[in-house]
Give the backbone structure.
Amino acid sequence: MDLYNLPNVTEPPQPMASSLSIPSILLVTTLMVALISLVYWCVQDYRLYMSLGPGGPPYNIWGWILTSFLVRPFTLAADDTTWTGDYPDFGCHKEIEALPERAGERPVVLGIAPQRQFTQSPGPEMNKRVSSLFATAEQNNSKLLQQRLSAFERHHVALFVHQILLLSNPESLPETAIRSGGEIGHLHGETSLHLYFSPADAKVIIDKGWAERHRCARTQPWWFGWRKYLWSIGDTFLLVYAPRDEAEYDILKTLIRASARFMTGREDIAEP
């Protein structure tokens, strides 16, 4: 009998080829690594957003989504906030031109909206003193300035162009003042400030180390039509670093006055 032709004997199973090729395995692995990296970035970025404290956007996951995915693509890169190449080289106020260089390194500033200073922050007593500068500026310029809650931040006191001036004589004001609703600037809990300046003043203030740009303080690129005032923020909206001592506190008075002069269109602003 032929042993190789026995009836009812099945053929031995043949080895099956793998259903996943090497390129498919690499693709799946790459996608998994990318997904894990994205989740990790989202968690870390959300933690950073919440560490900034309340600001303009909602202080929750929806505010983080708005800022990180809708606002971020149109902002300056974090490394570009001290760039001044789009500001004029001449025309600043003489008091601004005379400012000294700020001593030491710049503080660490994080966030888009809100944007906060994380190092070199003074104590709460300095915050009270800086807050009083807004009150004094209003008192010394009662027909030009007024103080109320920030429209941008909604949690902090702000200095505004007086509503009467804003409504009765808007043609005398810069476009920035109209677009911002008259808000000149506001104070933060760690004592940094956001203030508007003329382009020429802004260049000197940044170059001498006293401030940096808000991440939204830019003109959009050509592919977005050179659009300005996206999110109602002009390109000279600066984060002014918190004063560390008496000398820097006095310099802040000069900066607040320069900001108010630009936003009111008036040179006769009294120093706070």
User: Anything to note?
Assistant: The chain has a mean pLDDT of 91. The beta strands are 109-110, 116-117, 145-149, 157-161, 183-187, 193-196, 211-213, 237-240. The CA atoms of residues 120 and 162 lie 33 Å apart.
